[in-house]
Specification:
alpha+beta
């Protein structure tokens, strides 16, 4: 069986963003205004105050972390400063057909 190449980052690499509250640095990619991908390192997970303070939730994904509000704000600020690109927004600027599909 052939392994399918992972090309999800072909149109935009992840960018480092540091949390303004604790300094935890994660890698971020915004596919759209509604979708954000984060990649946590062990160091970032240890540095994040909200992540360390989170209590496990019930169920099979109980150890999943639902998110850090301070980091969310830091990512939003990085986007507004132009440090992190929103991929779908870039597609609309360079591909007028994408805009037609977005509004369909």
């Amino acid at each position: 069986m052939a392994v399918r190449p992972d090309n999800r980052l072909a149109d935009g690499a992840m960018q480092p963003v540091a949390c303004d509250a604790c300094g935890a640095c994660v890698l971020v990619r915004k596919s759209s205004w509604e979708q954000t991908s984060l990649q946590w390192s062990a160091e970032a997970a240890e540095a994040c105050v909200e992540r360390r303070a989170a209590s496990p939730r019930p169920g099979p994904n109980g150890t999943a972390f639902s998110g850090c509000g301070s980091l969310r704000d830091s990512v939003r600020a990085a986007v507004h400063r132009g440090e992190v690109k929103v991929q779908i927004e870039d597609d609309l600027k360079t591909n007028p057909e994408a805009q037609e599909h977005e509004h369909a």
